[in-house]
């Protein structure tokens, strides 16, 4: 099972977005199971679960893991092809974001378009590398930084732009025979705040008396 895979086909994307089929994918990410086993977990008749599994299988989202005899019946054990899925902008090819339409390094929406292109391109590269049974050379850097002020953030962006620009100028060789172009994406955005966990209390809540 892959850790993550990209869904590029619009029909496969539609299948994966169905709430029940998404639930089945989550269940099968935990390990192989039959339609009968899944029926008890999701609260559906086995026949309906089978119907959903066949739709997922047609689009390569689940696959046969094995078979087992149970009485006079042979059960098919299915498993998810990946632990998680990402839908590529190719699934909405006619309206996919295009960073080339405008360029604003301080625009959150332009950043979103760049990120969408990254998902699309890396997904396409993974698909091609898998078909060719070859490796894929990539690199990613992920981290967090807390700025004391907006001025510090602006200074960081300026130094980052200068530093990365210098590296590009140093290593880029327009005339390299047999060379291959690589895309560089550097992003900076505020971290998403997660809601604080609600602490459970063993004592009942206090009730204020009206005066």
Automatic annotation (TrEMBL):
The organism's place on the tree of life at top rank: Bacteria
Official protein name in the record: ArsR/SmtB family transcription factor
Species: Streptomyces maoxianensis
Species lineage: Bacteria, Bacillati, Actinomycetota, Actinomycetes, Kitasatosporales
């Amino acid at each position: 099972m892959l850790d993550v895979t990209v869904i590029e086909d619009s029909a496969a994307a539609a299948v994966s977005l169905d709430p029940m089929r998404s639930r089945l994918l989550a269940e099968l990410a935990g390990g192989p199971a039959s339609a009968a086993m899944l029926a008890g977990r999701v609260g559906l008749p086995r026949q309906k679960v089978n119907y959903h599994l066949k739709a997922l299988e047609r689009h390569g989202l689940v696959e046969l893991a094995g078979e087992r005899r149970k009485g006079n019946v042979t059960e098919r054990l299915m498993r998810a092809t990946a632990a998680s899925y990402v839908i590529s902008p190719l699934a909405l090819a006619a309206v996919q974001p295009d960073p080339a339409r405008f360029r604003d390094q301080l625009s959150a929406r332009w950043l979103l378009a760049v990120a969408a292109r990254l998902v699309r391109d890396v997904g396409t590269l993974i698909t091609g590398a898998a078909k060719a049974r070859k490796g894929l050379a990539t690199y990613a850097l992920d981290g967090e930084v807390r700025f004391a002020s907006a001025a510090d953030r602006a200074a960081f962006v300026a130094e980052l732009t200068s530093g990365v620009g210098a590296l590009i100028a140093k290593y880029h060789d327009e005339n390299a025979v047999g060379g291959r172009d690589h895309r560089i994406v550097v992003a900076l955005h505020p971290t998403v705040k997660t809601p604080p966990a609600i602490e459970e209390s063993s004592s009942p809540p206090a009730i204020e008396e009206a005066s």
